[in-house]
Amino acid sequence: MYEKRNDEAAAEALIHPLKSLTRAQFAALGGDAVAYLRPVSGAVLSTMIHDAEFEAELEYQLLMSADGTPLLVTDTQDAVVDWLGDKNLGLATLH
């Protein structure tokens, strides 16, 4: 007999090794060579960046270095691609 819940439990037990890294360990992986892209609402950005105005209901693209330093905030992924064009950075996306 096949039990789906056993497969789900086994899958949940597997934790991707990157999820258990500390902030310092993650930064050491790429340092200034890796950036990650995360979609974020304007409401959240307003709490993070106080000297700029964002429309709360819009979704923005937040590009950050591996050490957590914000690099770029834009409203399109195309702008991120353009900005990265002359940079020597690898891009990771967060889900």
Care to describe what's here?
The chain is an alpha+beta fold. 35% of the residues lie in helices and 25% in strands. It contains 4 helices and 4 strands; from the N terminus they run ααβαββαβ. It has helices at residues 4-13, 23-30, 42-48, 77-84; strands spanning 34-41, 59-65, 70-74, 90-93. A 4-stranded mixed sheet has the order 3-2-1-4, sandwiched between helices. β2 (59-65) and β3 (70-74) form a beta hairpin. It starts with a helix and ends with a strand. The mean pLDDT is 78.
Biggest sheet, strands in spatial order? Answer: 3-2-1-4
Helix content: 25-40%
Order of helices and strands: HHEHEEHE
Strand content: 25-35%
User: Quick one: overall form?
Assistant: globular
Instruction: Show unreliable segments.
Output: none
Over the alpha carbons, how many angstroms does the gyration radius reach?
Answer: 17 Å
Distance between the termini: 34 Å
Tell me, rounded to a whole number, the average pLDDT.
Answer: 78
The largest sheet is: 4 strands, mixed
Count up the helices. 4
Q: Care to count the β-strands?
A: 4
From the helix content, strand content and strand pairing, which structural class follows? alpha+beta
Q: Any descriptors?
A:
single chain, 95 residues, alpha+beta, 4-stranded mixed sheet, 25% strand, globular
Please outline the helices and strands:
Elements: H1 4-13, H2 23-30, E1 34-41, H3 42-48, E2 59-65, E3 70-74, H4 77-84, E4 90-93
Parallel strand pairs: 1-4
Antiparallel strand pairs: 1-2, 2-3
